[in-house]
Structures are given as structure tokens and as C-alpha cells.
């Protein structure tokens, strides 16, 4: 029996197991507790450590001024940052840019490191990555060999199943330190749970067939479906089917969080949306009793979309960024963050990735910061290099 | 002796550790409460978070639980001259939500408020200059990062010794008590037993050392009376474990706190807000005060 197990047993069980008296057991438990107990430090020493040892005191700047300011420097190290929003809104685009930023030399605001990109739905596009790089940092990318070097630092992995993902996660933990990995992206977490739906796997087969048959550059005039369109169509089919709410991701959540903590890197995870069902829990029992609000009242407050993966997952992420569309304009909302005000920034996706239309951000009051809208959003992102709406 | 003679004599024997209600009342008055920096919230709490008791605070993600936890870790340090306890804090982080930048912001705002108060009220007080620096506040928060439920149990056991060595700690915040008990626990009976063990030890700690224990909890959904409702996590047995229970929720566009359970406070709700300075009065309360 290892030491820690002793802490889960009662004193009586220990007395029986070890065949000793009460006093010995109490003293043994106290001793074991003192050893197993994690060390402490003052909040001051924690801060000083971060400022001294880490890039910008533990932040990865996104290049979006308003967002970076709201997040005290950028995507924080050591915790999970989640991007949630409807299909095609720009989550993967954001992840591509972040991957690039993490691989850039520190003189350009990057982390000068490697990136592991877990691409569950085969949405990663290296052409798009290079395009974003060339448009955002032409000075670097036009230098000979730089594009190859930077994109060479980004390792893309496509797990075939949840169990393969689980297995690989443990290996990742070991190799993180060795390979100077500075960012881990999981795109998307929700897709892992929905079990790589039928559409996903069929799509992958089709894609591999198509990519062999067609030339590398897809002209805009190519009749549908383009690869990007298909992904989003498949995703919207999934939403209609309903991604399961309860999920067996408890262990993964815990493990990924500890991975972030232990390696002090940022981990960015994307999440999908699903429609809110009529029996969605949204009140405590005292609210039901006291104010007898009807379900219709609540429908007024909320939107019809909610994040997939449920409230347990929502508790586990430290930062939640909601990407949504309202009246045709896309917004990036800082929905959950221990360090930011509830701000919404209008944005667009351009050839150089995501760009904010205003760095000031609109401060939202009330639970609207958590709502996910998809009004007037029918644009699908094409990876054809043209400027997008 | 007959039973009739023995029983009254037994009634007079003092129980070790027991107190009369009268003594307890006097003791309560001696222990100041920790302010939350929100007037309405302090009011429904009877002045603030009570030392000597365990208070559980739960709510949906983004409600401000961590914010409140950090605010209390800062406010416990408010000097006695300013109506505080002048004490230190232990912050037990099980989720990694403790962001030092935010602690610094809240500490700076707390000092600003005290300095302002100094300026307004204590013009005649000679020695009054506040000598606190935000770094002093950060220095007095003992931060533990717990990564598993066994570490959580070990730490709970170890706290008694730690606090005996650091007698000026007057608040222990656990953020959150839930996290490690929600992942993959196959044996629910074991979970219930471990949690109640933790609750008992923390209550003992609170009482013996005269400090406040604040446990932050998450929410889950439960099927009650024909519909799905929100409820605090960790199950029914846990809901009995803590002395006081406060639920943070959205009421329209405002954040509210509701006293769900307390032996001494009546059931009431109060609005509060989360600002760049930390927990503060809600905007509507501010308007009301300005009009007074």
C-alpha cells in the first residue's frame, strides 16, 4: 500500500491493517500528511517567480491589442483557455495564429518554441498557416527558410479515437519538457467526446481521396463543396444530432489541467455549441420556489445556443472566450476570466487571421456575456487566400 | 446511590470542551467578521464572513467565486485600526484559478480605498499614514496548490500544525473544494466519507483557532420535482456538512448572493458586483447611497 492510500482509510481500518494502536495510527497519518502535503509559498513569491522566469510574467500575446490588455498580457500560462462558438466563426483561425505566434522568435513577441496541435477534425491547414504568417509578419516569412523553420516547429497530430488520444496525452506529458513545447492546442475537445462522428470519419476518407486527385491550389471558382465548406456542413449536422451533454472526460480534464500547471504552458482548447433544450437547468431550487419564474422568462434572457460539454467542463476552464455573431457582426467576448472585465470586441477574419475592429471593447452587463449568438452568421471561411467578409 | 440521586449530579459535571450558550454569545461578539467589500453582502452575512465557522459559497462558472475568495484573502489583512483583523490568509487552490495579477489589482484597490478613508475621516489623526504596500498584502497570503484529492486530504490534516506555527492566519479559503472530488470517483461511498471527514476537520480548525473557513463549490444539475434544476455539487450529504451556505446567482442583469442555509442568519439575498477593484456594491446600491 502506498503512502497516499493510507489517507483514504479510516483510523480503524489502519489500526487493523497495521496492527497498531490509535496513538500510532494518528501519529502516522499526521506524518504522512505532512509529507504528501504540497509545499506553500507566499503570493508575493509566486508573482516574483513568474515575472522573473517567464515570458511577460506568463502570457502569450495574441497580437490583438484589446484582448491582450484585457488578459493582462495575453493567453495565460499554466491554465486552460477555451474558445467556444458556432461552426465557421473563427476558432481554428485563432488557433492557427496562436500556433504561429508561439513558434516565432521572442524578438517578434513569440515564445520561440514548439507547438503540439491536436487536430481532431482535420481542420488544420498548413497553407493557411503560412498565409497568415506571410501576411502578418512579412519581414520574417520572406526571409529564406523561415517559413519552413516556423512551420516545422508545429507538430500536428490527428488522433483516430478517444483512447488513442488518452494514451498519447500521457506521452505528451513526458515529451513536453524535452522538446521545448510552448503551446498545446486541442481543436476540438467537443469532437473528441462526440466520438468522431460518422460524418467526421467519412469526411476524412473523402478528403484524402480528393486531395490526391486535385491540384494543391483551389481556385475560388471551384464548385462546392470545398474542403472547408464540407467541414462546417458536417459540423452543423453534428449539432443537429446533439452532442451528448454528460461526458466521460473527467479524467482528461484533470490531466490536461495538471499538464498545463506542471509544464507552465498555455493550453488552448476549442469547444462547439449545441442548441439549448427546453428542459435545460438554469435555476436553483430557491429561485423556482421564491419567484416562480417560468421557462419562457428564462428563454428571454438566454440565447438558443449553449456550449457543448456542459457545466462541469465550464467550471474547469480558467478563461472562456466566446466567439459569436450578432446581426452579421462577429464578436469575441471574454466570458469567463479571473482577470478581465466582461468585454466584447467586434472582429473579422482576414488574410492575416483574426483582427479586432476596435481595441476598446464593449463592456457587457449581466449574463449576456456568457450567451452565444449566431445571428446573421452564414459565412463560411474559405482557405483560398482571398479577403473574407 | 439511587438513580434519582445520581442523575442530577451527573448533570452538573462539565463536559470537556462544552460551553454555555451565554459564554458563546460573548465570544461571538469578540470575533470580528471579515468584510466582503460589498455593503449589502456584508449585511445579509451579519457583518461579514464569520470567523469560527465554515461558510460554503457556490455558483455557476463566472459568478465571481474566486474573486470573492481573493477579496477575503486581502480583506482579512485590513489593519485593526481600519476595522479589520490585521491577520493573514491561506489560499488553497485546487483548480489553478489563482491569478497573481488579479490579487495584485485587488490588493492595490484595497489600499487605495483605505488611504481614501484615511483622508476623509482621519484628518485629525496624527500618526495616520497608511504604510501598507500591495506587496505586503501578497506576502501575507500563503498559497498552496493542490493537485489531487489525496493532497487535499493531506493538507487538511496538516493545516492544524501549520496554523499553530502561524497563529495570525484568520481565514482559510479552498478554491474549490469540489474539483478533485468530481473526477472519476468510482466509489461514491468513499467520496462521501472523505468529504465529510474533511468538513469535520475544517470545522474543528475553525473553532479551535477562531478562524473563518471559506469553501468554494461548483454547481451541477439535479432532477427535482419534474424539472432539471441547478444545485451545488458534491451531493446531498455534503450539503449538510457546512455551517453556512451562500449561493451566487444571476438575477436579471445583476449578480446576487443568497443565504441558502445558516443557523443564525435569515434567508436573504443581496446584489453585489465584480469590478476591476474586486467585489464591490452593485451599481444600483451605489446610486441609492449617493442619493441618501
Give the end-to-end Cα distance of chain A, rounded to a whole number of Å: 62 Å
Shape of chain A: globular
Oligomer: heterodimer
Give the DSSP E fraction of chain B (strand runs of 2 or more residues): 15-25%
| Structure classification of chain B | alpha/beta
Beta strand % of chain A? 15-25%
Architecture of the largest domain in chain A, according to CATH? Answer: 3-Layer(aba) Sandwich
Q: Largest sheet of chain A, if any?
A: 10 strands, mixed
Number of domains of chain B: 1
Main sheet makeup of chain B: 9 strands, mixed
Q: Report how far the terminal alpha carbons of chain B are from each other.
A: 70 Å
CATH topology of the largest domain in chain A, which one?
Answer: Rossmann fold
Helical coverage of chain B, percent range? 40-55%
CATH uppermost class of chain B:
Alpha Beta
Count of extended strands of chain A: 15
Name the largest protein-protein interface in this structure.
A-B, 67 and 71 residues
CATH architectural designation of chain B: 3-Layer(aba) Sandwich
Sheet with the most strands: spatial strand order of chain B: 3-2-4-5-1-8-9-10-11
Main location (chain B): nucleus
Subcellular location (chain B): Nucleus
GO molecular function (chain B): ATP binding; ATP-dependent DNA damage sensor activity; DNA binding
Keywords (chain B): ATP-binding, DNA damage, DNA recombination, DNA repair, DNA-binding, Nucleotide-binding, Nucleus, Signal
Amino acid at each position: 500500500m502506498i503512502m497516499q492510500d493510507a489517507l483514504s482509510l479510516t483510523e480503524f481500518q489502519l489500526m487493523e491493517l497495521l496492527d497498531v494502536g490509535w496513538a500510532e495510527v494518528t501519529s502516522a497519518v499526521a506524518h504522512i500528511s505532512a509529507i504528501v502535503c504540497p509545499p506553500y509559498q507566499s503570493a508575493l513569491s509566486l508573482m516574483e517567480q513568474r515575472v522573473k522566469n517567464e515570458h511577460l510574467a506568463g502570457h502569450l500575446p495574441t497580437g490583438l491589442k484589446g484582448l491582450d490588455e484585457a488578459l493582462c498580457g495575453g493567453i495565460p500560462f499554466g491554465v486552460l483557455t477555451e474558445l467556444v462558438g458556432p461552426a465557421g466563426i473563427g476558432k481554428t483561425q485563432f488557433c492557427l495564429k496562436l500556433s504561429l505566434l508561439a513558434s516565432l522568435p521572442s524578438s517578434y513577441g513569440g515564445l520561440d518554441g514548439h507547438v503540439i496541435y491536436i487536430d481532431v477534425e482535420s481542420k488544420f491547414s498548413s497553407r493557411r498557416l503560412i498565409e497568415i504568417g506571410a501576411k502578418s509578419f512579412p519581414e520574417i516569412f520572406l526571409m529564406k527558410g523561415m517559413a519552413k523553420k516556423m512551420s516545422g516547429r508545429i507538430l500536428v497530430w490527428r488522433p483516430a479515437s478517444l483512447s488513442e488520444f488518452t494514451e498519447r496525452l500521457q506521452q505528451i506529458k513526458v515529451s513536453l519538457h524535452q522538446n521545448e513545447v510552448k503551446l498545446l492546442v486541442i481543436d476540438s475537445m467537443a469532437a473528441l467526446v462526440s466520438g468522431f462522428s460518422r460524418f467526421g470519419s467519412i469526411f476524412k476518407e473523402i478528403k484524402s481521396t480528393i486531395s490526391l486527385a486535385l491540384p494543391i491550389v483551389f481556385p475560388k471558382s471551384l464548385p462546392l463543396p470545398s474542403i472547408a465548406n464540407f467541414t462546417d456542413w458536417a459540423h452543423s449536422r453534428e449539432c443537429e444530432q446533439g452532442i451528448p451533454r454528460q461526458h466521460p472526460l473527467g479524467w482528461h480534464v484533470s490531466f490536461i489541467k495538471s499538464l498545463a500547471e506542471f509544464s507552465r504552458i498555455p493550453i488552448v482548447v476549442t469547444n462547439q455549441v449545441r442548441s439549448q433544450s427546453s428542459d435545460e437547468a438554469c435555476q436553483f431550487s430557491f429561485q423556482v420556489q421564491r419567484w416562480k419564474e417560468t421557462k419562457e422568462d428564462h428563454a428571454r434572457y438566454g440565447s438558443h445556443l449553449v456550449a457543448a460539454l456542459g457545466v462541469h467542463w465550464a467550471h474547469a476552464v480558467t478563461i472562456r472566450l466566446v466567439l459569436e455573431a450578432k446581426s452579421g457582426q462577429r464578436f469575441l467576448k471574454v466570458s469567463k476570466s479571473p482577470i478581465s472585465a466582461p468585454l466584447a470586441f467586434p472582429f473579422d477574419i482576414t488574410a492575416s487571421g483574426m483582427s479586432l475592429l476596435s481595441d476598446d471593447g464593449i463592456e457587457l452587463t449581466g449574463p449576456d456575456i456568457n450567451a452565444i449568438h449566431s445571428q446573421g452568421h452564414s459565412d463560411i471561411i474559405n482557405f483560398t487566400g482571398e479577403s473574407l467578409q | 446511590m439511587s438513580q434519582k440521586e445520581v442523575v442530577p449530579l451527573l448533570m452538573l459535571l462539565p463536559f470537556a470542551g462544552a460551553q454555555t450558550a451565554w459564554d458563546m454569545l460573548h465570544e461571538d461578539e469578540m470575533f470580528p467578521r471579515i468584510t466582503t467589500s460589498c455593503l449589502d453582502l456584508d449585511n445579509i452575512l451579519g457583518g461579514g464572513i464569520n470567523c469560527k465557522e465554515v461558510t460554503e459559497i457556490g455558483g455557476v462558472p463566472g459568478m465571481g467565486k474566486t474573486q470573492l475568495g481573493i477579496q477575503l484573502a486581502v480583506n482579512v489583512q485590513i489593519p485593526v485600526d481600519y476595522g479589520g483583523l490585521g491577520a493573514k490568509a491561506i489560499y488553497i487552490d485546487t483548480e489553478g484559478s489563482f491569478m497573481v495579477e488579479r490579487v495584485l489589482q485587488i490588493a492595490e484597490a484595497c489600499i487605495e480605498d483605505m488611504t481614501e478613508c484615511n483622508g476623509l475621516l482621519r484628518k485629525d489623526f496624527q500618526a495616520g499614514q497608511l504604510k501598507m504596500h500591495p506587496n505586503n498584502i501578497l506576502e501575507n497570503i500563503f498559497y498552496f496548490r493542490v493537485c489531487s484529492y489525496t493532497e487535499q486530504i493531506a493538507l487538511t490534516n496538516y493545516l492544524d500544525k501549520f496554523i499553530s506555527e502561524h497563529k495570525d492566519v484568520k481565514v482559510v479559503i479552498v478554491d474549490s473544494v469540489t474539483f478533485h472530488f468530481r473526477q472519476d470517483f468510482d466509489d461514491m461511498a468513499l467520496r462521501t466519507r472523505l468529504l465529510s471527514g474533511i468538513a469535520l476537520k475544517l470545522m474543528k480548525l475553525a473553532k479551535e483557532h477562531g478562524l473563518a473557513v471559506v469553501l468554494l463549490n461548483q454547481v451541477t444539475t439535479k432532477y427535482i420535482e419534474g424539472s432539471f434544476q441547478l444545485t451545488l455539487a458534491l451531493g446531498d450529504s455534503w450539503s449538510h456538512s457546512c455551517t453556512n451556505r451562500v449561493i451566487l446567482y444571476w438575477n436579471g442583469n445583476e449578480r446576487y448572493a443568497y443565504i441558502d442555509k445558516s443557523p443564525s442568519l435569515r434567508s436573504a439575498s443581496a446584489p453585489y458586483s465584480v469590478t476591476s477593484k474586486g467585489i464591490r456594491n452593485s451599481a444600483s446600491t451605489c446610486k441609492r447611497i449617493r442619493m441618501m
